[in-house]
Amino acid sequence: xxxxxxxxxxxxxxxxxxxxxxxxxxxxxxxxxxxxxxxxxxxxxxxxxxxxxxxxxxxxxxxxxxxxxxxxxxxxxxxxxxx
Length: 83
Known about the structure:
It holds the Pfam family DUF2498. InterPro entries: DUF2498, YciN_sf. This is YciN family protein. It comes from Siccibacter colletis. By secondary structure, the protein is an alpha+beta fold. It has a single domain (about 5-80), classed as 2-Layer Sandwich (GMP Synthetase, Chain A, domain 3). It is built from two helices and four strands; from the N terminus they run βαββαβ. Strand 2 and strand 3 (about 40-45) form a beta hairpin. The longest helix is centred in the C-terminal third of the chain and has 18 residues, at about 60-75. The chain is elongated and about 40 Å long.
């Protein structure tokens, strides 16, 4: 996959990811990507998952998971992390 994607550093990639999050129809206030790693050519994003006091998922957790999945799908086609 890296032959057809552009190298990018994590800081620039997170800025692009957060721009996409804010522009998305399913954006929820407080939704933000704070980390990114790469596994087998797929970019994996992490951030706020809106867990409750016991650390269990809430209704917003599904939206956050789906947003990070959207970012992985969209941005893995374009970029790979610089080493």
